[in-house]
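Posted in: Structural Biology > Protein-Ligand Complexes

Title: Requesting predicted complex, iron/sulfur cluster in pocket

I'd be grateful if someone could produce the 3D structure tokens for the following input. Sequence and ligand are given below.
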Amino acid sequence: MVDTEGRRPCRCLLADVPGEAEMARIIAERVAAMPEDLRADEAKRKERLEECKACAHLRNGTCALCGCYVELRTAKKNQHCPSVPPKW
Ligand code: SF4
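-- Reply #1 --
Done. Output follows.
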């Protein structure tokens, strides 16, 4: 399967997808602006992102199950993985 520009979807975080640097920057800004009481701590977020990076549902930085940018979803303290059972 390829996207409209003939690229294969990669199982990468947005920050690692070629051509997505601007969106990765916007996501990083949104995470940084998130109130601390709503934000997962950095260790938890990294642990979640490792699960996403190993997951077959990751497509160009988004979760194919929920459509979220995983770099944003994993940063929210009260979010969970939509997989059944959840991976994080
Ligand atoms: S199903 Fe869960 S682990 Fe997989 S990409 Fe989505 S949020 Fe990440």
